[in-house]
Amino acid sequence: MAKSMATLDSDTTCSSWNYSGHRLAAGSVDGSLALYDASDASASPSSSFTCSSKVRVGETSIVKIVWLPPEFGDAVACICEDGCLSIWEEAAEDSHALEWKLCKNFKNKTGRVLDVQFGVSRKSLKMVAAYSDGYIRIFELLDPLELKNWQLQAEFQNVIDSVSSLGKASGLSASVSWNALKGENQEPSFVLGFNSDSPHVNSSKVWEFDETHNRWLAVAELALPEDRGDRVFAVAWAPNIGRSYEVVAVATSKGIGIWHVGLTPDMDGRLSVKKAASLSGHEGEVREMEWDMSGMTLASSGSDGMVRLWQSNLNGKWHQQATLQPFSSN
Questions:
Q1: How far lies 173's CA from each of 85, 170, 196, 265, 306, in Å?
Q2: Which residues, other chains included, contact 52 with Cβ-Cβ below 8 Å and sequence gap of 6+?
Q3: Taking the C-alpha atoms of 183, 187, 191 and 197 in order, what is their torsion angle to the nearest 10 degrees?
Q4: Phi and psi for 124 in degrees, rounded to 5?
Q5: CB of 291 within 8 A of CB of 307?
Q6: Is 7 strand, coil or helix?
Q7: pLDDT tens track for 24-41
Q8: What is the pLDDT of residues 283-300, one digit of tens each?
Q9: Helices (DSSP H) in the chain: which residue ranges?
Q10: Which residues are CB-neighbours of 325 under 8 A, at least 6 positions away?
Q11: What was the pLDDT predicted at 329?
C-alpha cells in the first residue's frame, strides 16, 4: 500500500526533488518557496518529510523550481508566473542559523523566462534560459563560491540558420535538457524546443559549444521535415552509459518521439539523427519527461493527469511498461 511521505500546502503549484540531499522544494501561488526535509538523516522509504523553512521569492506564483548541481551547495532557481528568474541559496551568515538568501535576480525587458536548466562543463557551471521571445541566453558562473556572479556568455534564437531569425516569437512554454554525462574532452551540449507562435523556433535543436570559435552551434534538428513547425512541449536527454549514439525524447502534439543522435559530426559539423520510435498514449499535452539513471526507462506525464513508463526491448521496439493513475480519495 502506498504511503504518504509529505503533505504539501493546498496552493502548491510546483515541486522539485533534490536527489543528493533528499530534500523537496515546493512553490506556491503567493510566490513562496517551501523546503521539506526528512524526519531522519537516512531519508529511508519510511521517512516522513516536514516543512523546515519557507521564504517569499516573488510577487506571483512560482511555476518552476530547479536545483543547482549539488557541488554548488543547496541552491535553487525559481521561475515565477510573471517570467522573473531568481537564484536562492541556503547559507549561514555570522554563525547564525541556516537561511535562504537571494543570490541573483535575472531581469530582462524583452521576454519572460519559460525554462531554465544547469549544465556543468569542465571549466564552469553554465545556465541556459529559454525566453518567451524565442531567444536562448547562456549564463556562466564566474566564481563557484559566489552564486551572485553570473555573466551572460551568449544570446541567440533557437534556429538552425540565422537567416531564419525573423522577428520576435511569442512563446507559451519551452523545454531544455542538458547532455549531463559528456566525457571530459567533450564540449557541453543541450537540446531545446519551444511551444510558440513562430514555427521557425519551435522544433527541438541540439546546441553544442564550439570552444575554438567561442560560440554555440546548432548541430542537429530533431524533427522530420513535415514536422519542423510543430510546437514542442517537453524534451529529455537520456544518460548514456555506453551507447554509440545519444537518445533524446521530444514531445509534441503528435506524441513522443524517440531520437537517436550520432556522436561524430559530418563535414559541416552536423550530427546524424534518426527517429527510432513514436510513442502515443497520453490524452492531451505531454508536459514533463524524465529518464532513469540508466537511460533505459522514460517516464512521462501530461495534462491527462497520467504518468506512463516506457521501455524498449532488446530489439529496439518501444512499449508502454506501466501506467500510474493519480490518487483519489473518492
A1: 15, 9, 7, 30, 20
A2: 35, 36, 37
A3: 180
A4: -165, 175
A5: no
A6: coil
A7: 999 999 999 999 988 765
A8: 889 999 999 988 899 999
A9: 199-202
A10: 306
A11: 47
Length of the chain: 330
Cell numbers linked to 223: 524533427
Q: What proportions of the chain, in percent to the nearest 5, are helix, strand and coil?
A: 5, 50, 45
Closest CA to 30 of 57, 52, 68, 70: 57
In the chain, % of residues over pLDDT 70: 90
Q: What SS3 state is found at 46? A: coil
Residue appearing with cell numbers 536562492: 88
Q: The pTM is what? A: 0.90
Over the stretch 2-26, which tens digit does the pLDDT of each residue have? 556 677 878 999 999 998 778 999 9
Q: What type of residue sits at position 169?
A: A
Helix (H, G, I), strand (E, B) or coil at 15: strand
pLDDT, residue 301, reads: 93
Rounded CA separation 250/192 (Å): 9
State which amino acid sits at residue 280.
Answer: S
DSSP 169-195: --EEEEEEEE-TT--TTSPPEEEEEEE
C-beta separation of 212 from 218 below 8 A: no
Quick one: average pLDDT of 120-140? 90
Give pLDDT, residue 298: 96
Query: Grid coordinates representing 197?
Result: 507562435
Q: For 283, which DSSP code?
A: S
> CA torsion angle for 5, 65, 98, 150 (degrees, to 10)?
160
Confidence band, pLDDT 50/70/90 cuts, at residue 88 = very high
Closest CA to 77 of 102, 46, 52: 102
Place of cell 543547496: 74
Instruction: Write the single-letter amino acid at 229.
Output: G
